[in-house]
Request: fold
Amino acid sequence: MRIRKQALGDRNIVGARIEAQRKAIGLKQKDLLTQLQINGVDLNASGLSKLEGQLRYVTDFELVAIAKVLGVSINWLVGEED
Reply:
């Protein structure tokens, strides 16, 4: 597992929760990318890494698919639920 070299950015509020939930359910980034592609979201490894690092904006289409794949609500991803 690589350690993040850059500090977290400020382009989204969901990145840290996406990374935490992905790890909690035992998904590697490549597995999440595969599931997102099945759900119609074409995201590459660099894009996901930047998204998790809060260095990239997230679209509404991506947010819906990510919540579905990770088994969480959009409200949880944006910090509105614990």
In short: The two ends are 26 Å apart (CA to CA). The domain at 15-77 is CATH 1.10.260.40 (434 Repressor (Amino-terminal Domain)). The longest helix spans residues 60-70. The helical segments are 15-24, 29-38, 45-52, 60-70, 74-77.
